[in-house]
Records
---
Amino acid sequence: MTTSDAFSHRARVLDALARKPGLPLSALSSETGLPEGELVSLLPDGMATPAPPEAFEAVWNSLLEWEKATFLAITPGAVLEVPGPLPAGTWGHGMFNLHDPATPLGGHLLVERLGAIWFLSKPHMGKESHSVQFYTRDGQAMFAVYVGRGNDRELLPEVKARFIALRARYESASERPLIVYSSRTGNTRRVAEAILALCPAASDLFSVETAPSPAGRPFVAVGFWVDRGLPDALSQAYLERLQGQRVGLFATLGAQPNSDHARHCMEHARQALEAKGNAVVCQFMCQGRVDPSLASAMWKHHPPTPERLARLREAERHPDEWDLQAAQDAFRAQLAGTPAAADVPAAMPAPATPIV
Ligand SMILES: Cc1cc2nc3c(=O)[nH]c(=O)nc-3n(C[C@H](O)[C@H](O)[C@H](O)COP(=O)(O)O)c2cc1C
C-alpha cells in the first residue's frame, strides 16, 4: 500500500457510508475491498473506539454482566448468531475456552490471534446498534458481541448503558501513549512488545493494520521493517497520519543498525515526520532475521554476495535479548517516565557494513 492509498482508503469508506449509512461492516468491507479491521479505524469520529488486544480478558469479563448479548461469527459459509448471556472463559492450550451449561454459547476463542478490539456504534439496517468487534492482527473479523434486543427488537436499555460505560473506559485511552508496529515475520512485533512491557497498563499496542488514529495521543511509537531500503509501505502510510506530535521510531532490518543503509532509512522516516511538524524524540534499530522464504524477494534487488550472506547469518539471531533491552532503554524515558538515553539511537557493537 502506498501513502496516497491510505488517503483514498478513507475517502472510499466515507463515500460508501454516505451512500449507504446502514451497511454492515462486512458488506462495507466487500464494497471497499478493505479488511474490516482497517476500515473500522477510518470510520467517522465517535462511531468506533479502539481497545488494545491486551484488554481482551477485562472486556470479556465485563460482557458477562450483559443480561443479553448476541455473539456473532461470520464464516465463508454462514452467519452464526447466538443470543443470550455470555459464558465465562478459562485459558488452556493457548485458547480462551468457553463452557458454561447455563449459557447457550460454547467453544474456543483463539485470542493469541487478536489484533484489536473496537467498540462500534453504527446503525444497522436503519436501527441503532452497538457492538464490540474483535479483529485479527491483519484486520480480519474474528467475532463480535452485540448489545441484546428485547422481543420488540429494541436495544435493552440496561445492556446499552453497560456498553456505553465499558466504552467510556477506553475513550480516555486517547490520552495514553500508542505503540504501532508493522511486521511481516514477527521481528518488529517482538521489539514493539518489549517496548510495551515498559508500561503495559498505561499504553496501547496495535499492529498497523488495526491501529487507531494517532490524533491526540501524547506519544506515538511507530515500528517498521526495512523493505528495499525504506520503511515498509504500511508503516509509511501510518507515519503520514501523524501531525505535530511527539513520536518515537523503531525498526528492524537485515543490515546492521549502525550502517549507512540503516541510517538512511531511519533518516527518511524522521524527515517525513519532521516535515509535518512532528518531533522525533527517540529512536532504535536492530537487526531482524530475514525469513528464508522471503529472502528471494530481496535477492531480486540485491543479489547475494558472500558478505551479504554472512550478514544474513548474523541477522538470524536477532532481535535477541540484548536488542530488546536496548529498545527498552531507548524508549524508557518516554513511556516509563524515568531518565534514559532516550535521544540517543542504540548502537550495536558490530562494524558498520550494510547488507545491501
Ligand atoms: C522483501 C524484503 C525486502 C527487504 N529489504 C531489506 C533492505 O532493503 N534492507 C535490509 O536491511 N533488510 C531488508 N529486509 C529484511 C527485513 O527488513 C528484516 O528481516 C526485518 O527484521 C523483518 O521484520 P519483520 O519480521 O517485523 O517483518 C527485507 C526483507 C524482505 C522480505
---
Amino acid sequence: MNKIIFECVCKEKYNLISTYKNNIIVNICFKCHSFFTKKKNFLNSSLKIKKFNKKYEFFFSK
Ligand SMILES: [Zn+2]
C-alpha cells in the first residue's frame, strides 16, 4: 500500500492509502461533486454518483 495524494482541479486534496502508486489528479472530487449534483436533478445525479463511485472505487478499496 502506498500513501498518495488524490488531488482535484478545484485544489482539494485528499491523502489516501492506496494500491495505486502515483498521485491522482481528477477533474472532480467528492467536494465539488456534491456541489454539482445539488444543481442537477435527482435521477441524473444519482446516476452520476454511481458512475463516479464506479470509476474511483478501486482507489479507495482496502
Ligand atoms: Zn473538487
---
Amino acid sequence: MKNFIMAAIAGVFALALQNCYGQSSSGQSTPASKAPEYSHTETAPVKKSNDDWQKVLSPEVYRVARLKGTERPFTSEYEHSKEIGTFYCAVCGNPLFKSDAKYESGCGWPSFFEPISKKSIVEAADNSLGMHRIEVMCGRCKSHLGHVFDDGPPPTGLRYCINGVVLDFEKAKTAEKKFNSKKKAESGS
Ligand SMILES: [Zn+2]
C-alpha cells in the first residue's frame, strides 16, 4: 500500500513537472495568449463578454482593458522606448499609434500626441474618481486604453496617456522584413 501511494505521488509530481516544462517552452516562442479575432489588418468590430475576455487575456491586461484599471506609473517598457514602429491594441491587434507620434511626457505612462486615425480609438467622458476626464478606448474592441488630456505638444496639443500593458509594439524593420518575405514567397519559384 505504501509503495502504491509513493508511486502515485511520484506520478503526480512527474506530471506536474511535465506541465511546467511544457508551459515554459511554449511561453518562450509565443506571445501572451490572444483572442482568435486578434489581427493587425482586420477592422470588423470585436464584441465579447468580459467572461469570454477573461479566458483569453492575461490577468493584468484583463484588469486594465476590460475593468478600466490603470497600470502602475513608470512600469511600462514602452514609456521611454524610442524604437520606430507601430503600437497595436494588445487585446484585438488594432493599429493605434505610430512611434513618430510618441513623446516623453514624464507622466509615467507611454504618451502620444495623436492616434493613427480618428477611427483607431473612441473617446468617452469619464467622471469617475471625482475628476472630469476623457477616456480613450480601442476603436475596434472598445478596450480601455487610457485617457486624453489637452496639455500635449504641437501640432495637436493633446496627450494620449496610454497604459503600456494594453499595447503591443512591432518594430518597423520587423514589419518590413515580414512584408519582403511575403512578397518573395508570392513571386518566388
Ligand atoms: Zn482593441
---
Amino acid sequence: MARSWRNFFRRTKEAEEETKNERAVGVEDEEVIEEEEPPERDLAEPEVTEEPVQEEAVEESLPEPDEVEEALGPAAAAERQEAAGEEEFGGWFGRLRRGLQRSRESVVGQLNAAVAEFRDAEDEEFWERVEEILISSDVGVTTTAKLVGELEREALEKNITSGKELRELMISHAEKMLSAGPVELDISHKPTVVLMVGVNGTGKTTTIGKLVEYLPGKAMLAAGDTFRAAAIEQLQKWGERTGAPVVARERGADAAAVAHDAVEAAKRDGTDVLMIDTAGRLHTKVNLMAELEKVKRVVERQLPGAPHEVLLTVDATTGQNGLRQAKMFKDSVGVTGIILTKLDGTAKGGIALAIANEIGVPIKLISVGEKVGDLHPFDAREFAEALFGDL
Ligand SMILES: Nc1nc2c(ncn2[C@@H]2O[C@H](COP(=O)(O)OP(=O)(O)OP(=O)(O)O)[C@@H](O)[C@H]2O)c(=O)[nH]1
Ligand SMILES: [Mg+2]
C-alpha cells in the first residue's frame, strides 16, 4: 500500500481511538502564507498564545463534497475543489510526477534512449551509459557505483535481455536503496518533541507549518530560530493559521531557553506534539551546531527520551552539498529522518538515492512545492517509479 498521511504517524492505541471519529485533518491545498514584513512587536517576555482553536473535523477520505465546503469555508472549499480536480490527474502521484518533472525529463529521457538499445547484460558500454545518466542526476559517484554494480550482477544472473525487465529491475533496486529505515513519524509520546534542523532556506519553518496541518492531536510550536530577523513572526503566522500556540522569546534570546519554555508549556497544556523550529544560520557553522546540541541537551534533560524525532530538511536543489550537510547534522545532533524539499525546482532528484544510501537515515517526507498539499510522506516505491518509470 502506498504511503499516505493515514499510515504516516505512529501513535499510541489510545490516541488513535480518541480521534478515530474526529480526525482533524488539515486542508491540503491552501496558498502559501505571504512573507510580509512583520510588525514591530515587543517579544521581551516568553509568550504562549492561547489554546489552539479547535479545528473542524474533516474526514480525509472524504465526506460528501458539500459537507466539506461547509466545514472548510468557501475559500478552502474552492481550493479543495481544485485539489479534487487534480485527483483526476492522478492525485498525489500526479503531483509527485509533475514535481519531479525536471528530474524525469533528464533521467527518464536519457534512460529511455539507453534502454531502447539494451540487448544483454554483458554490454559494458550500456552500463557506463547508465552510470553517466545517474551521476548527472546527482545520484553521486559512490551510490551510482553501488546501484549499477548490483543491477549488472542481477541482470547477468537472470539473463535479462529486455528493456522492460531491466527497467523493472532498476526500479526495484532503487526502491530497496531508498528504504533506509522506518518512514513513520513517531508521535507516540506525550508530549512528543520534534526538533527541526537544517541550513538556512532549506524549508524548516514552512515544513513545520505544513506538517501541523496534518498532525493529529494538539500541536505546539517553538520559535527556536532567534537569530534571523522575522523568523519568530514567520512561525507565529503559521501558529495563527493552524491554531497551534507558539512559544517564543525575543530575537537574540537563547534558543535553548525557548526550547525549555516550550517543553514546560507542552507538558503543562497536554500538548501531543511540540515542534521546535531552529536557526539555519548563525555566525559560523560551529556556533550553529553548538547551539543545536545545546537545545537538544536541554530538551533531553527536561523530558527523558526527547527529542523523539530530529528532522533534517535538505534542499534537493543543492545536490551533493545537501549530502554534506546531512552528514554534518547527523554527526552532531543525530537525525532520525530527512525531509527532502524543493524537488520541484531541480533536475537532480537522484540526490534522494545518495542520501538514503550514504547517510543511512530514512527520508520521511518530501516536498514538491510551496503549498500544504505539496508535502507528503515518502514512499520509496512511488519515488523510484516516478524517477525511473517510463515517460
Ligand atoms: N518550490 C519550493 N519551495 C519551497 C519548498 N519548501 C520550502 N520552500 C520555500 O523555501 C523558502 C524557504 O523556506 P523556509 O521554511 O523559510 O526555510 P528555513 O529552513 O526555515 O530557512 P531559515 O529560517 O532561513 O533557516 C520559502 O520561500 C518556502 O516557501 C518546496 O518544496 N518547493
Ligand atoms: Mg526558518
